[in-house]
Specification:
- The chain has about 130 residues and is mostly helical.
- Helices cover about 65% and strands about 0% of the residues.
- Helix 2 packs antiparallel against helix 3.
- It is elongated, with a radius of gyration of 26 Å.
Length: about 130
């Protein structure tokens, strides 16, 4: 029974004043946050564990912890997108002429290191 559990929690807090007093619901919030972090953001599993009626409640309430996951996903996407086998990473020697198709150029740009991409962007804007 939820009422009895809350009553027990309040009594426990009164018996242990050395601990910071918190609202009982904060335990549920902390639990859901931790479950989302450990599961990699598995909304449906956490929804089942916490008893939330709709997954949207979890998504909206706990969106703040998804920032790290979004950054990790972006890094994985970028690493995979720019990792292309057979794309030369060294620059041609000064004065060396090379012939590229548009596809070769796009492939080379995708495989270029970030510093070279920045230099290309600056050169194109100049």
């Amino acid at each position: 029974e939820a009422v009895l559990l809350r009553k027990w929690f309040v009594e426990w807090q009164e018996q242990h004043p050395q601990h910071t007093r918190i609202v009982f619901h904060a335990l549920r919030h902390s639990s859901a946050t931790y479950q989302l972090m450990v599961s990699g953001g598995d909304i449906k599993s956490v929804q089942g564990n916490t008893g939330h009626a709709q997954a949207g409640i979890l998504v909206n309430t706990y969106a703040h912890i998804q920032g790290r996951s979004r950054l990790e996903l972006a890094a994985k996407f970028e690493a995979d997108f720019y990792r292309k086998a057979g794309v030369p990473t060294e620059r041609p020697a000064a004065g060396q002429t090379i012939t590229l198709t548009c596809q070769d150029l796009l492939t080379a740009i995708r495989g270029a290191d970030p510093t070279l991409k920045k230099e290309l962007a600056i050169a194109l804007l100049a």
